[in-house]
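Shape matters. Shown next:

___
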Amino acid sequence: MPPRRRTTAPQVNEAARLADELQAAGLTKSDIARIINRDASLVSQFYTRGKGAAFVPALTHVLAAVRTAGITDVGELADIAAPRITRRTTRSGGKARVRTKAVLITPTGTGTGRAGAAAIASGSTRLRPLIAEAARQGLRLAFTVRMPKTSYVHASGSRTDSPGIRRDVTQRADHTEERSYGSATTGGFDAADFARRVDAAGGDVTAAVQQWLVETGRIHADAHITHLEIRTWRPRN
């Protein structure tokens, strides 16, 4: 009989190993893709094609943030990763093209974008393309904000504050609260209206959302948003 060939398990590269540890900590491949601002298919290629070397420093810091600081918010982790991601270069020394979707809206109109503390400070501009595309497609929009409890005008869970809350009020250990405004049940908001508000604010999504909350009597004028999430969907006919 011919000698049996020894089969060796494919070697897992460092990016795949870090991705495994992040998944063991509760994140998904889609979460990891959003954290590094790339398409989810690239994360799969960490395993199948040995890619991901450029993301190792970012993923290392993200894993440390998850383990030591308990950070699980995808927007916050993306802020940690962003300055540690280096672009590949071409043979001529130029920056390689990044294969990524600027706006992730499904054919059904479903889209989600999040901004953590660092992105909030710069106006949550990463959310502007999502809102603009939602407006172009005639979608509806809802959002969740997180800020200190004392920033809200109405008591926690007040129907005056956010009737038809989709995700209810989430209270955090750091004395902040997440409150949701709009849902598919209540009809949400016209994305085009919010796109106009963002344009009027010079592209500052944080400022546009804060202005709406102040105008509608939901938060105090000196309130400070710490996290923001935008959700979109296609209205029912």
In short: The two ends are 70 Å apart (CA to CA). Strands lie at 111-115, 140-148, 170-171, 176-181, 189-190, 227-233.
